Amino acid sequence: MEKQIGNYSFIIGVIVAVVLGLAASKLESAAVWLQSLLVVLGLVVGFLNVSGKETKEFLLVAVSIVIVAYAGGDQIKSWEEVKLIGQYLQGIFYSILAFVVPATIVVALKQVWDLAKGETA
Predict the structure, then answer these.
(1) Are the C-beta atoms of residues 51 and 103 closer than 8 Å to each other?
(2) CB atoms near residue 90 (< 10 Å)
(3) Cα dihedral 26→29→32→38 (10° resolution)
């Protein structure tokens, strides 16, 4: 049951991240609540959806996503030049960060805890 909650949280998080990225300018005050929802969903995914053998693979993929989303969202200053979709892509990248970073931190801390206890090989 916990795994299903984690799976649904992941799917909902991705959908909310994309929708928020596409419509953030139109959602205004709701965007703040949706960003908070993304953080909560990321925490749920981190606690319930990733464990055991999937941990290392998840962390590798999540770190890749965080690096690319950060670079795409914050470091590219020329999104204004991409007339039709630039601002939307930047919004999607920021929303993905709000979702993936909390999950990554939770999973990484769980992994460090397990390493400290001597439960992983």
Answers:
(1) no
(2) 20
(3) -60
Nearest to 114 by CA among 28, 24, 67, 106: 106
Query: How sure is the predictor about 109, in pLDDT bands with cuts at 50, 70 and 90?
Result: very high
Domain span holding position 52: 2-117
Domain count, the chain: 1
DSSP letter at 80 equals G
Amino acid letter at 75?
Q
DSSP H helices, the chain, are: 2-27, 29-48, 54-70, 86-117
pTM of the model as a whole: 0.81
